[in-house]
Amino acid sequence: MAPADTTARVRLDTAVARVPGEASAPRSPPATAVGPLAWLRGNLFSSWLSTAVTLLLAYLIVRWTIGFVEWAFVNAIWEVPHNQTQACREIKGVGACWAVVTEKHRFILFGTYPFEEHWRPALVVLLFVGLYVVSALRRFWRKELVMIWAGVLTLIGILMWGGNTAPGLLRQPYEQVLALVLLAGAGFAYRHGRIGVALPSALIVYALLAWAGPVLDMPYVSQERWGGLPITLILATFGLAFAFPLAILVALGRRSELPAIRMLCVLYVELIRGVPLISLLFMASVMFPLFLPEGMNIDKLLRAQIAIILFAGAYLAEVVRGGLQALPRGQYEAADALGLTYWQKTGLIVLPQALRLVIPPLVNTFIGFFKDTSLVLIIGIFDLLTAGKTAIIEPAWQGFGVEVYIFVGLIYFMFCYAMSKYSQNLEAELNRHRRR
Amino acid sequence: MSDATTDPRHFRTPPRRPLRLSWSDERVRAIVWQVLVVGVVVAVVWWLVRNTAHNLEVRRIATGFGFLGREAGLPIGEHLIDYSPTDTYARALLVGVLNTLKVAVVGVLLATILGTAIGIARLSRNWLLARLASAYVEVIRDLPLLLQLLFWYTILQGLPGPRQALNPVDGVYLSNRGLKLPWIEWQGAHTAALLALVAGAAGAWLYARWARARQMADGQPRRAWPAAVLLILGLPVAVWAAMGAPWTVDRPTLRGFNFVGGVTMSPEYFALLIGLVTYTAGFIAEIVRAGILAVNLGQWEAAQALGLRHGQVLRLIVMPQALRVIVPPMTSQYLNLTKNSSLAVAIGYQDIVSIANTTLNQTGQAIEGIAIIMAVYLTISLSISAFMNWYNARIALVER
Lengths: 436, 400
Description:
The complex is a heterodimer of chains A (436) and B (400).
Chain A: H1 3-16, H2 35-43, H3 48-74, H4 86-90, H5 99-110, H6 119-136, H7 144-161, H8 165-168, H9 173-191, H10 195-216, H11 229-254, H12 259-274, H13 277-291, H14 300-326, H15 329-337, H16 342-357, H17 359-372, H18 384-391, H19 401-435
Helix pairs in contact in A: 5-18, 6-7, 6-11, 9-10, 11-12, 11-14, 12-14, 13-14, 14-16, 14-17, 15-16, 17-19, 18-19
Chain B: H1 8-11, H2 26-58, H3 89-122, H4 127-141, H5 145-157, E1 173-175, E2 178-181, E3 183-184, H6 188-218, H7 225-242, E4 249-250, E5 253-255, E6 258-260, E7 263-265, H8 267-294, H9 297-305, H10 310-340, H11 344-347, H12 352-363, H13 366-395
């Protein structure tokens, strides 16, 4: 209770406490109104029904928790000598066999990537997490974020492929000079004449590109051997990086005054949203090769990535359209009155406000896509879930699917839970100024 | 009244200028942009079609749906209509569509019930119940559906064999061959009773409408429920009894290595159903919760002040308003569940995607196979949206 309130109560009490037999000192509230006891009474035992529900649930929770702890920890086997799963089979149903995770965790996380090179996908996962954290911080919501994304994604490509692929373009001296000039020019333009900063940074980028591979001695790994968590993160991140601009264009097109463009966008969105992602993935895996001219072939991973981009684009476009519609008409009219062109109006007035409105639903859509990347299992791409499923194909480890799926589920859960909590906080924060 | 008092926007349309062939004319720009975009799209599509035609020719794949009439030769474990591997591809695909509908319809019903229960539980004043419901929602929504399906399927496969089957209730057996339930031997009387039930429900609805119209006319409330109970319960029972009241229960019994009799829910169907229902229920719970929270507390109080009973408040005041918020997102959840049923292919339930996929592998008719999948889902999606849009329009707020 606030102090001011107490003094008011005291004065009131002294004023009326002339009734005989009544104590004049302020009484503390009854234990049934405040404090833990009152909380229990109000929230757990407020009625007969509530009490019954509480007791039943408490009983079930305690029983299941004890059962789970016994299975997962007390009776569990954490390690077995090489592929000797007899001990695990004996305790099946009574205790968990975490030995399957201990034995196979490198395979589940990184797939068939060469064993000695596992530090590279591990570093890639860390880079991805870092990228997500940076993007989540509002301090970094600026134009520079696009540069950070481009830089980190390039670095991820270099790490995953390794070898001389990335610097391979820059073998010849003229290519090196050209790259240098280009980078310096870009930096110069970006910094508006501050060449003192642009030149050294361009040099550093160039040096990284040209020498990172050979200097660190990373052998080339083709994308057929990539697998596990990096694939999941690559599909999700690159998918969003490309689907998002596409979605903005489609959302703008759907609200365009040009009937042909509007119709094309409606057709695209409704067609994609009407069919399951699997049918698009099938299309990417069996139909796409038919679309291309003879001799031209696109890698399977890239085809799946294109399907995911097209799919995500349609859903994100609807979210963005919601933001465009929520923006008051006055904003559009004011921009028109200022004489801005369509793209000026869109880029400077409409999008910055519209996107801000839909950040929470966007994050929710991102969570959906992160989970949906697991569907590539069906067309045989080696993502985290496929790696988990493949790990238990070996006869010695057959029948320990539950343990592996719990492990894989925990990884997915960590990413999705973080995003979902972030989205909830952001929603509260963005709405605060409106609630006032 | 002169024109001056009307909204100036209504009559101040800009005068039509003659079209000038100049870039500074907005209409010229609009036409040029549209022609350009449509031209690019048409060119890309034409290029793809030409490549495809060429590739098909090179690989000697005949196009067209002629393969549908050929013998499929693919075994299907679960079928609602008669089917054998000697039937045609068309019939196999029809079986697949029916299997998809079987899981989608049952899934939508169960997910709605479970989701509504959990959504209301999240709003419960009982702290433990509310926390448990919200933990459920959080965990279920943060795990990929495919992972959950594989998880359930693994658990069902890990169950003991038919000889050591779990027997939770008498006559119900749960083993790695699926769920076995007792079932009555279906006879003509049951069909007649079922028809009587439909007729009774229609009669009850008509009676309720008549009672409502009478109440509007003379102000006298009439009880609809005695007539409804009589029509919905009494009529079918009477029909069934009049036809000899046949009642033979077909119980599953263990014979050899498997059960005979009763009805079976295969592990694949069971896993798919559990996965879809629990997953979608997590989303529906959030929708229901948001819908109920969206109804202003003042509405409850005003209704109570009018002297309505609790049930009436809920039925006449709160639910109609909550439904308005609930129905549109619920539609997309139903669509999602139907589309997600395509994940059946990963655990071996033979839905349309699975059968079309086998078909296209056997015949090489990739384009036709995928076109069939897409056409089926588009049809289902559009039907669900059309129905839900109609329902939404019915319950939507009618303003002046």
